[in-house]
Amino acid sequence: MLYRTVPKTGEKLSILGFGAMRLPTRMGKIDEERATKQIRGAIDQGVNYIDTALPYHGGDSERFLGRALQEGYREKVKLATKLPPQSVHTREDMDRILDIQLKKLKTDNIDYYLLHGLGAESWKKLCDLGVLEFLEKAKSSGKIRNAGLSFHGDRKTFREIIDRYDWTFCQIQYNFLDENNQAGTEGLQYAGSKNIAVMVMEPLRGGMLSTHLPAEVKQVYAKAPVQRSAAEWALRWVWNHPEVTVVLSGMNDEGHIDENIKTCQTALPHTMSDAELATVTEVAGLYKRLMKVGCTGCAYCMPCPSGVNIPMCFSIYNDYHIGASHLIARGMYGGMLMGGVMAGRSDASLCKGCGKCAKACPQHIAIPQELKKVNSTMGGLRTKILMPIVRMMFSSEVKE
Q1: Topology given in CATH for the domain delimited by 3-281
Q2: Residues 235-252: pLDDT tens digits?
Q3: Which of 158, 151, 249, 267 is nearest to 205 (CA)?
Q4: Axis crossing angle, helix 131-141 with helix 120-128, rounded to the nearest 10
Q5: pTM for this structure?
Q6: Of the candidates 170, 169, 138, the residue with the CA atom closest to the CA atom of residue 151
Q7: Is the pLDDT of residue 395 over 80?
Q8: If we measure between CA atoms, which residue out of 130, 119, 110, 121 comes closest to residue 155?
Q9: Would you say 205 and 248 are in contact if contact means Cβ atoms under 8 Å apart?
Q10: Could you give the CA distance from residue 118 to residue 132 in angstroms, rounded to a whole number?
Q11: Integer angstrom CA distances of residue 92 from 89, 96, 97, 126, 271
Q12: Do the beta carbons of residue 310 and residue 349 sit within 8 Å?
């Protein structure tokens, strides 16, 4: 196992982290026996960073990890979990939620504590409620060791948040299709310049970059100078960036776990050749040509006067058409944009057609017209009937 150093603390973390959002299930519940074997097996092979969050598996992920990390395994890992902004309404809620999480995880402290899924609105809400004072108090009391954030907004907001506080680490979505989306490469490098450790989520874009590959993509990989699985190509590309500290994988299959652990044993920064990087660039170009909307996620169209999260609408819509599971894409759309998980709605149905966004778009996308197509495909009955399931899986209700 390779390890990278957290710049501000000197702590060594395994470059592969175990994400506990997609644990194996049975009859709709976490398959505890199998998931425990998977997590403990990964730890035995050197993985020392485990990431969860209050809403994962309907609130059961933290509780499960509290049990799975008994018998000495808690002492072998650095544990990360998150404060969900949608569950916070007062300053007191922050302390209450943290105490519940400590109890569920059966631990006295959280090694890496994140503000969950920040964007401009959730960041402002938490700041207005005193979240920075909360983080200082939690650190001084020893309940958390390192403060960080996970992010799903635009690059301008990311810089503002990074500059506001002395963060130890951050967590961003990053893969070879998201170089210009959300925080992107610019955000990765900015955090690195501030000596902030970067944990990467969605390196495979929810599995889209490793399964159900378009025929054109298979052909490019087949003629590559090195033969690898699609998952290995995508993971190595992320690890090739020296600013990346940990790559999180939501592993729930024993074969995938073994493959990922084998891959990360040699995934040093700056070790991909020019020919290998050209292969990934060609694959990324194919995916982008298959996209329905040529949105780069720059967010010049934001904020939308009607409250539409335009970049995320296009991102999920594109994923739906270029290989992502339609069920997962609909679940993401309903959960993130239609109020299934995140508070409030920001889906394409809110568009009033004012045209302000189109005038600001550097790509000259006819945004109101494209949003109508998004709503027609993603916002119908088939998505709405998934909402109760999405709410159950990612419930923000805080229960002990």
Answers
A1: TIM Barrel (3.20.20)
A2: 999 999 999 999 999 888
A3: 249
A4: 70
A5: 0.81
A6: 170
A7: no
A8: 119
A9: no
A10: 14
A11: 8, 6, 9, 12, 48
A12: no
- Cα 111 to chain centroid distance, Å, stands at 19
Tell me the C-alpha distance between 111 and 199, whole Å: 14
What is the location of CATH 3.20.20.100 in the chain?
Answer: 3-281
Q: Look up residue 16 and give its two tokens.
A: 């592969």
Whole-angstrom distance, CA of residue 73 vs CA of residue 79: 11
User: Which element (helix H / strand E) includes 16?
Assistant: strand 16-19
Q: Which residue reads 């990324």 in tokens?
A: 284
d(CA 63, CA 66): 5
SS3 247: strand
- pLDDT of amino acid 246: 98
Residue carrying structure tokens 């298979």: 218
Structure tokens at 309: 């999260």
pLDDT tens figures, 142-180: 999 999 999 988 899 999 999 999 999 999 999 998 898
Structure tokens at 102: 């400590």
Question: What are 31-73's pLDDT values in tens digits?
Answer: 999 999 999 999 999 999 999 999 888 889 999 999 999 999 9
